[in-house]
Structures are given as structure tokens and as C-alpha cells.
Design brief:
Layout: H1 2-9, H2 26-31, E1 63-68, H3 73-85, H4 88-95, E2 108-111, H5 116-122, H6 126-138, E3 146-148, H7 161-168, E4 172-174, E5 186-193, H8 198-209, E6 214-221
Parallel strand pairs: 1-6, 2-5, 5-6
Antiparallel strand pairs: 3-4
Helix pairs in contact: 3-4, 4-6
The structure holds zinc ion (2 copies).
One zinc ion binds at residues 39, 41-42, 44, 52, 55.
């Protein structure tokens, strides 16, 4: 009953093909482009997303798991739908066919915090939604252990990689009450899209400086 009322008020159309009845139809889900795994430091191919030994940085990521190819227009539309349409169902669908097994026994999943004025405006952090779905599948708990301590410009408005790095430098901190959850722990950072990776890399630096043993990233797309 409620479903049909909601459906009447907000009719669903597939973000891929526009067909009525579904946010993302099965035909489009089956055609989505799966990402090649890359080294998050140099962007070149890397089996399983491990950081190449030559690319390792002192406070850097140990690896990255990416699911979809962001150049796929349907993926882009679906991620926009999650982010700007607050559509959790789309995230459920994008993750439906995946199991998550990694060689690392993660202690917790940590969403990359949103820019704070945006979070206040929406009260919806897509990274948190993705983290809760992945955490459910991995049976690992999600802990919001990071926060933004200052305003940053929206990364998508900056095209230069260096500008993006500068923009987020010093922007994150570990929340005090969570410091015991960082030291010697294995952490999986979660975000929607990995482009320059500046946010994720800055979060990694903060976690490693606070004593994290291993930090991997997971993004829906790159
Ligand atoms: Zn479709
Ligand atoms: Zn590399």
C-alpha cells in the first residue's frame, strides 16, 4: 500500500535506459562495466588493487578495491542518484551481486566524511550508506571515526591533482573517542568514487599517523 503511494508520488525510472518501474533495471545492472583494479598511487593496473612495492608511501594506502568503471554513463548516473537523490536503493542494487572477501581481516569500515556543510544540508553521506551495505556483507562494523575539521572546496570543482591534495591537507582528524580503534588496527576506508584519491589518501595519512597498521580503500567506482 505505502509502496504504491510512494511509487505514485515518485515514479521510478531506470537511470540507465529510462524504463518505468525500477531505479535500475536488471538488464542495465547486467551490462555495467566492472573496473580494472589499479594501484591507487600511480593509477596503473595492479592485480587485486595492491599498491605496487615501488609506489608504497610511509603514510599511504596499502591497496584499493574498486567495483565499477566510472566512465560507464549508467554508473555515473546511478552514483549521482545515490549522492544527489539520496537513493539508498541504488546502492543496494549496485552491490547486490558482490561478495567481499579480501586477504585482510579488517577491524572496521570507515566512511570518508562528507564536507560538513553538505552533510548538514542533506544529513546523508553516500559513503556511509555504501559502508553500511558492505559492512553487512563482510560482517565488519562501520565506525565513523573521522571528521572534517575545516571547510574544504568541493573536490570536483578542482581539476588539478595537486590542488585537490592541497585542498584536503589537514582537513580530517580522528575523533578522540575513537583513537583506541585505530592503533594497530586494519581499516577499510569507504567512498563512492575514487578519482584523484586525494580525500582517501588524506584520511589514510591521518589514520596511519594515529597508529593504524593497514589501511585499504574501497570505492564504488573509479
Ligand atoms: Zn535499465
Ligand atoms: Zn603503483
Amino acid at each position: 500500500m505505502f509502496d504504491s503511494i510512494i511509487d505514485f508520488l515518485f515514479p521510478k525510472y531506470c537511470v540507465g535506459c529510462g524504463k518505468y518501474g525500477n531505479d535500475l533495471c536488471n538488464k542495465c545492472i547486467n551490462e555495467l562495466s566492472i573496473a580494472d583494479q589499479i594501484c591507487p598511487e600511480c593509477g596503473d593496473d595492479s592485480p587485486m588493487g595492491w599498491v605496487h612495492p615501488k609506489c608504497k608511501k610511509e603514510w599511504g594506502l596499502d591497496g584499493l578495491i574498486v567495483i565499477y568503471d566510472y566512465r560507464d554513463l549508467i554508473i555515473k548516473a546511478a552514483i549521482d542518484g545515490i549522492k544527489f537523490g539520496f537513493n539508498r536503493e541504488l546502492a543496494v542494487k549496485l552491490l547486490k551481486n558482490f561478495r567481499f572477501e579480501s586477504g585482510v581481516d579488517f577491524d572496521s569500515l570507515v566512511p570518508v566524511p562528507l564536507h560538513f556543510y553538505r552533510e548538514n544540508w542533506r544529513g546523508f553521506n553516500q559513503a556511509e550508506v555504501i559502508a553500511s551495505l558492505v559492512g553487512g556483507k563482510m560482517k565488519v562494523r562501520v565506525v565513523n571515526m573521522l571528521k572534517r575539521k575545516r571547510r574544504t572546496k568541493q573536490q570536483s570543482l578542482l581539476s588539478d591533482k595537486k590542488d585537490r591534495e592541497k585542498n584536503v591537507k589537514g582537513a580530517f582528524v580522528v575523533k578522540k573517542e575513537n583513537s583506541f580503534r585505530v592503533k594497530n588496527k586494519k581499516i577499510l576506508l569507504i567512498d563512492d568514487v575514487f578519482t584523484s584519491g586525494a580525500d582517501m589518501k588524506e584520511c589514510t595519512k591521518v589514520l596511519k599517523r594515529a597508529g593504524a597498521e593497514v589501511v585499504w580503500g574501497l570505492a564504488l567506482a573509479h
